[in-house]
Amino acid sequence: MAHPLQKIPAIAWEAAAKIAVHLVLLVFGLGAIAKLVPYQRSQLQKLHALEAEVAQLEARVKELQREQERDRQPQARRRIAQEEANLIGANQRRIIWVQPNTSKQEPD
């Protein structure tokens, strides 16, 4: 009588070996994907944060460019001197706003 393992043809052994190898490769592939997905998500979060920061910086650059253009105008020298030195023109008066005392003290 022949042994039961000898009845299985060689082609079946070869197919079983291929399936086993493919299963091992599949497990390693799934493991690699499981590690890459969180990394990819964190990189996307960093990218979104950087894009938001770039947008803020672009807005700041535009604001500074507008300010620079405004300061390059001929009449800007006087205005800049007044702002920087806290000076006023000869034909101007200084106005100082004070807040009224809102607490009323009652006499004794």
TrEMBL record:
Residues 40-67 form a coiled coil. Keywords: Coiled coil, Membrane, Transmembrane, Transmembrane helix. The chain crosses the membrane at residues 19-37. This is Tlr0198 protein. It comes from the Bacteria. It comes from Thermosynechococcus vestitus (strain NIES-2133 / IAM M-273 / BP-1).
